[in-house]
Amino acid sequence: MVLLECLLCTSNVSHLRHHLRSAHKVLNLEERQTLLRLARGRVKLRDLSCPVCSIKFTLVERHLIRQHSVLTDPVVRNLIKTLKWKVSMDELARLRETNPEIPMASTLDVIESLNLEDQVPAPQDHQVDDSFSVGLPDNKGDYRADASQAEPVKMPETYPEFVTLNLHDLLEMD
Ligand SMILES: [Zn+2]
Ligand SMILES: [Zn+2]
Fold this sequence. Notes:
single chain; mainly alpha; two-stranded antiparallel ribbon; two-stranded antiparallel sheet; 5% strand; binds zinc ion
């Protein structure tokens, strides 16, 4: 008997279709079919961008296996699994947008969209941008302080800068 993992409660069940109906009250047929297809791995991947090279392919699964032979089987399997998940979440979200007559019982797509929102860079990231200016010549206070601490190195003016540095390093070693 083939056990399938229920995506709503992670338990392995023998009759997922029945389980979705009775245990989770998934009465909307489209919703149930999407959940079933995802659990069985039978999600059609058509006209999707390859997660590796970002090029759109009619059969992205075949493209991944054939064109990205550098990738190991588990990596490819994971990429395909992720694609199937995303496609299914899109299906559920689209169904939700239509406000179906028979209401949806699952919330996987809602959780997914919330997770994606979390990954969007937060406004605090602007502080990271500001930090780039620290230590640059326009930050005159720090710049001068560093310069005054440095030992003046006297070298023939004809030497290019990189030679000067190398000679200085050698002198330090002695
Ligand atoms: Zn379940
Ligand atoms: Zn690719």
